[in-house]
Specification:
Layout (H helix, E strand, L loop, with lengths): L19 H11 L3 H20 L6 E5 L5 H10 L4 E6 L2 H13 L6 E5 L12 E7 L10 H11 E12 L7 H12 L11 H7 L3 E9 L3 E8 L3
Parallel strand pairs: 1-2, 1-4, 2-3, 4-5
Antiparallel strand pairs: 5-7, 6-7
């Protein structure tokens, strides 16, 4: 277990206690009930984030941490037969569920999915028009967040855009927020993610922030649109 020390990038956010191996095992275990646990709260945020990304016909789009594939389906429809949607997720069970969802929608030919770690994206430099993340960045430990965003910067073409939706610690207060962080500290195997400073992380990675949309589920959420310099 890692100590709850501070990170120079985001000095007062909590650390992630699970190893990658434990995280993969956890999501494999809950894959069949993942949507029951999270879809009601996350769906409105995902919809707003997809609208902010505004994928268009012919684009190449990467989703990091796609879960059961709801956003992959929406992105594949948006880019059309001339585009391509790539996806990477740590859980092989979720990869399989996402493939099934895409097949049901007859969208599999527009997608290429990988099971792997987002810190080592298996895509060429400057190859993507856009990168999308929804409730994924906050799963990474504090020192890993800049590495994930650096990998996203690398694969984006000049002028490409990134949209990250995640739980934010900015302006977060109240009993529910404190209870959530307490649960993360004491039950990290069940509450595996925690609020971070989403906008600050995007800016620190070198992206130019173009827009921030704020929402609230049980904790505040930030949806951040950033761009790579042309």
């Amino acid at each position: 277990m890692k100590a709850c020390t501070q990170s120079p990038q985001q000095p007062d956010i909590l650390r992630v206690f699970q190893s990658k191996r434990e995280t993969k095992a956890f999501y494999n275990k809950i894959s069949s009930v993942y949507d029951l646990l999270s879809d009601r709260s996350e769906a409105p945020v995902r919809k707003a984030a997809l609208q902010l990304l505004a994928a268009t016909t012919g684009e190449l789009v990467l989703e990091v941490g796609f879960g059961t594939g709801h956003c992959l389906v929406a992105l594949a429809k948006a880019v059309g037969p001339a585009g391509m949607v790539y996806g990477i997720d740590l859980s092989d069970k979720l990869v399989e569920l996402a493939r099934q969802s895409l097949a049901r929608e007859h969208l599999a030919p527009r997608t290429k999915l990988n099971c792997g770690d987002a810190m080592r994206l298996p895509y060429p430099d400057n190859s993507m028009d856009a990168v999308f993340m929804s409730f994924t960045l906050e799963l990474f430990d504090s020192p890993e967040i800049p590495k994930v965003l650096k990998a996203c910067m690398r694969v984006l073409r000049p002028g490409g855009r990134i949209v990250v939706a995640g739980m934010t610690k900015k302006d977060a207060r109240g009993f529910v927020f404190r209870a959530y962080e307490w649960s993360h500290r004491h039950f990290p195997n069940f509450v595996d993610c925690r609020p971070i400073y989403v906008q600050r992380a995007i800016e620190d990675a070198g992206f130019v922030v173009r827009k921030v949309v704020r929402m609230k589920i049980w904790v505040p959420v930030a949806i951040v649109l950033g761009k790579k310099a042309a």
